[in-house]
Amino acid sequence: MADVGPVLFVGDSVTRYQYMTLIHFLASGKYQHPFDGRESLSDALRHRPTKLHNQYDMLWVHAKNQISEHSTGGSPGLNYQHNRSAHLERAHLALRLHIDPSRKAHLYYGYVGSGVFEMQEAIDWAMNQRQDWRYLILNVCAHYTKDYTEAISRDVIAVVEWARQRYGDAFDKAGTQLVWKSCTTPQEKVRDLLDVEERKIAQYATATGLRIYDTRSVAKAATDQHLVTTWSAKEVHYLQFMYEQWNDLLLNILCPAAHAGFKEYR
User: What is the CA radius of gyration of the chain?
Assistant: First the structure.
């Protein structure tokens, strides 16, 4: 990941859990609890609140502790801001490589629920952190209700156009690529509506060069095979093994092993 460059995940709680699952894997070399065991990083409800801190606070505390436990000595680790009532969740993992501690991988996360403004605000925050981004991975989905799903493609396209206009020079200089992470909401009542939105975004992507990280196909394949993938039938949050599938897909795209100069480390 250090070779890839800095990566930002922008999205709602589904993206948060994917991010936490991924950074645990990068720090420890393994995933945590496939079916959301005790203190799972893909399920805030597995954490015990205190008088001062809610379950989501404790989730972030546990994530930071896990990174500290598993990462190479001297790693800056996981730094975050979290205020659930203010809808504020931002994180930065700076992880030293085991094989070369002088180099670091950088992965960021910014929470958004819905709407153009929230996505713009997240990208502004990211560009204030640094200008050398490799990938800005954007997702919104679950907070758009059944009667409002038609706004997803409109909002996403508007934000991509805005970002390219506002930060186009910086993107060109750094080789930054904007990426749409497709919707994974599995409920039957919105499935067809989301498919329509995904087709609109795909058409725009083909015309403009927007990259698509197709997590939806993985989620739909599991649904079509009647796998139990979410906390409950009405939930949009997945059991960890699904985040593992999406992360494995992402890592195989970003970090293919079979390239010139690849060395196997044991």
Answer: 18
For 95-108, the DSSP string reads EE-SS-TT-EEEEE
Q: Which fold has domain 7-254?
A: Rossmann fold (3.40.50)
Q: List pLDDT tens digits, range 205-249.
A: 999 999 999 999 999 999 999 999 999 988 999 999 999 999 999
Judging by DSSP bridges, how do beta strands 177-181 and 104-111 pair with one another?
A: unpaired
In this structure, what are the phi and psi dihedrals at residue 44, rounded to the nearest 5 degrees? Answer: -60, -25
- How many CB atoms neighbour CB 207 within 10 A? 8
For β-strands 211-213 and 177-181, DSSP reports them as parallel
CB 5 within 8 A of CB 28: no
Burial environment of residue 66 by CB neighbours within 10 A (0 to 12, 13 to 18, 19 or more): buried
Helix (H, G, I), strand (E, B) or coil at 259: coil
| pLDDT tens, residue by residue, 168-185 | 999 999 999 999 999 999
CA–CA gap between residue 213 and residue 139 (Å, rounded): 10
Q: In the Cβ-directed half-sphere of 242, how many Cα atoms lie within 13 Å?
A: 27
How far, in Å, CA of 8 to CA of 137, rounded? 6
